[in-house]
Amino acid sequence: MKLLKLSVLALIAVASVGTAAQEVKAITGAGATFPYPIYSKWAYEYQKITGVGLNYQSIGSGGGIQQISNKTVDFGASDAILSGDDLTGKGLVQFPMIIGGVVLAVNIPGVQSNALKFDSDTLSRVFLGEIKKWDDAAITKLNPGVTLPSKDITVVHRADGSGTSFIFTSYLARVSNKWKNRVGAGTAVEWPVGLGGKGNEGVASYVKQVEGSIGYVEYAYALQNKMATAVLKNRDGQFVMPSADSFAAAAVNADWAKADHFGVVLTDMPGKDTWPIVGASFILLYKDQAEAPKIKAMLKFFDWCYKNGADQAKKLDYIPIPEKVYSLVEKMWSEKIKANGQSVWP
Q: What is the pTM of this model?
């Protein structure tokens, strides 16, 4: 299924929940561009089966947090983790919906996909603007046998509030003290150098257009745009290619049960086969709901995605949420999410 450009996936349908007066016509959500390809696919399949429509705006995690905070959508989606205090203050719960990898997309004449290697120090220095040319000694030392041009490096980053940026900068802050002290981690940071693109779509577009560029995107965007990706040295000292298997290796060691509000950061995880820039994408919902039919329709959709959407997720190189994790999530739904004071799940 082709990516629909930004804004809205509108699958308009009617779902009857209870009486006609309780009819739910559509579910609305907004936020992260990172999971948009799989949310699009799930929404399409779910509408065919149930008749329930989803309208999801792919506007970035910052926009999703703002829209759910303003109560202009039924749910928000964010790759950035909200703290327990933030969630409590806003009256929200968060839970992971899907896991994916953030990859390095490059456009270097003559260099094929996965031919170029980076380690954490070299990568951080590129994004700090300290390494300015592709034939810099630090890059060529890692890449004997690869012909690199004496061409300026153009860094491409997100211009909007972004969960993908949160994942990427969280990785850089973990592996580079210089990055941590100068820039830090967040959905929006003061980038030392580079061009800003809106959404994963915008970053992918810039990298494709600008020779000598490097950017970070969710893996599905790199695949669907046929972009060259780079190899990265992980915590165990192994050079690893981005793939569903290397993303899954990062998720194996996550301790969801003990994490504050499921807020697990999956960057720089151990394991020789682990891709080091992985993250979960989260759903944000209000604990106290005004309309029982609407929240029930949302939870039924998310439940279907957990239990029936794994194959679609894997085809797009995402990692489905494990059953032991979504069982914890659904237990939280039954305990914390209520409509007019009454539990709504199951």
A: 0.86
